[in-house]
Prior knowledge:
CATH superfamily: NAD(P)-binding Rossmann-like Domain
Low-confidence stretches: 189-197
CATH topology: Rossmann fold
Largest sheet: 7 strands, parallel
Number of domains: 1
Mean pLDDT: 90
Number of helices: 10
Radius of gyration: 18 Å
Number of strands: 7
CATH architecture: 3-Layer(aba) Sandwich
CATH class: Alpha Beta
Order of helices and strands: EHEHEHEHEHEHHHEHH
Amino acid sequence: xxxxxxxxxxxxxxxxxxxxxxxxxxxxxxxxxxxxxxxxxxxxxxxxxxxxxxxxxxxxxxxxxxxxxxxxxxxxxxxxxxxxxxxxxxxxxxxxxxxxxxxxxxxxxxxxxxxxxxxxxxxxxxxxxxxxxxxxxxxxxxxxxxxxxxxxxxxxxxxxxxxxxxxxxxxxxxxxxxxxxxxxxxxxxxxxxxxxxxxxxxxxxxxxxxxxxxxxxxxxxxxxxxxxxxxxxxxxxxxxxxxxxxxxxxxxxxxxxxxxxxxxxxxxxxx
Length: 271
């Protein structure tokens, strides 16, 4: 995994969980390609990791929802001779709103970032990754993928897509050198808005919390071990098991009342 010619490509790699992935990979001696919005965070994170971990770090600033963005990223790697043996599709966006009040742009953003970019990047990189002795794809999903969450209808549906797509792709590639895993964390404290959302759930929100650094550590460890579906945190595994035995109508009522609380802090999400 620490072949000096190989690189781990991480989308959304300049902050939050993406930065945690970058540090975890660098700590293991992996070279990095960080893809994120072209801002100071990307420059700072790239320089910081390269200096601290003594690995090669390349950065590519782009908005992933831009038309042709996946092709531009792939071309950048090809033109610079960068062999990607690990693709971490981390970039994504959550949200909470009443669907009928949401803008078309709100829904399009979540579909493009959570689904479109992940699918297209996977399609572009798989042929070259199959030529390597070993390669890995980690798709960052969410515990929301297992639930139909009111006020997060598009988000939870987009993550359900990621879960199903990842499991199907894993089977297609089972006889190749590529291992595919899907990571399904619960709420993560990565910025002011995510903190506010988690806080609306009170003690229930805090008990299921796993910090980005630990999620990245678990995710990379399990990915390298070939784990199919990765659920970080004992309590999150427990809630998922309980969700399978609770009657559907009871479960949906609980989800409605629990996630309606987030509307108080998510007014900007409708835009």
